[in-house]
Amino acid sequence: QKEVEQDPGPLSVPEGAIVSLNCTYSNSAFQYFMWYRQYSRKGPELLMYTYSSGNKEDGRFTAQVDKSSKYISLFIRDSQPSDSATYLCAMGKGAGKSTFGDGTTLTVKP
Amino acid sequence: GAVVSQHPSWVICKSGTSVKIECRSLDFQATTMFWYRQFPKQSLMLMATSNEGSKATYEQGVEKDKFLINHASLTLSTLTVTSAHPEDSSFYICSAREGGGAHEDEQFFGPGTRLTVL
Questions:
Q1: Which of B4, B46, B103 shows the shortest C-beta gap to A49?
Q2: What is the CA radius of gyration of chain A?
Q3: Where would I find the beta strands (DSSP E) of chain B?
Q4: Which of A41, A42, A96 sits opposite B97 (nearest CB)?
Q5: What tens digit of pLDDT does each residue of B46-91 get?
Q6: Which listed residue, B1, B14, B78, B102, has the most CB atoms within 10 A of its CB?
Q7: pLDDT score for B102
Q8: Cβ-based contacts of A100 with chain B (< 8 Å)
Q9: Would you report the helix, strand and coil content of chain A in percent, each value rounded to 5?
């Protein structure tokens, strides 16, 4: 069983929809939680970084961490075609190395 | 801030040659740099972790003699693919971590290098 599970999708939504991306994990030692966006043939770009449980909002993006359920989410409001990308969740134990999910491919249709 | 560059962005080489890829943190000092490999439509596969001034730690199944990593300074790490073969063709991505405080595990990625071995 993988330490981090992420539904690969693909996920297709109409422009303006609210998108929910999720990851589950099994290792309770994870303390740092990240979401990255990766466009085709580009390096991942850090979107959100959270420490421990709770919510964090940045513009149209909201990250949620529920450590009791070992579940993290990324919500995208008012989704745009430019949000079409692969979204990777990642988690760390404070030792520098992160464990990545396999990524969810999102397409936002105009 | 937190910009990581990679050079070259793409390279084509003949089988049997060696290729060097550079990764630089432009506006911060990276205590740790990571090298990943990514095949089309697949996730990142961590190859190795390198700390400045020390030997890299390779993930299981990654040949350290084939993928040479040097982390000579706090802003530069290099990956050399030695005696490259077509199966080494992939997208290689580095990331850098400054570390410390609440951003302990935050990594910033380079744009990637696409290697094609003929």
A1: B103
A2: 13
A3: 4-7, 10-13, 19-25, 32-38, 45-51, 57-58, 67-73, 76-81, 90-97, 108-109, 113-117
A4: A96
A5: 999 998 878 899 999 999 999 999 988 889 999 999 999 999 999 9
A6: B78
A7: 59
A8: 43-44, 46
A9: 5, 55, 40
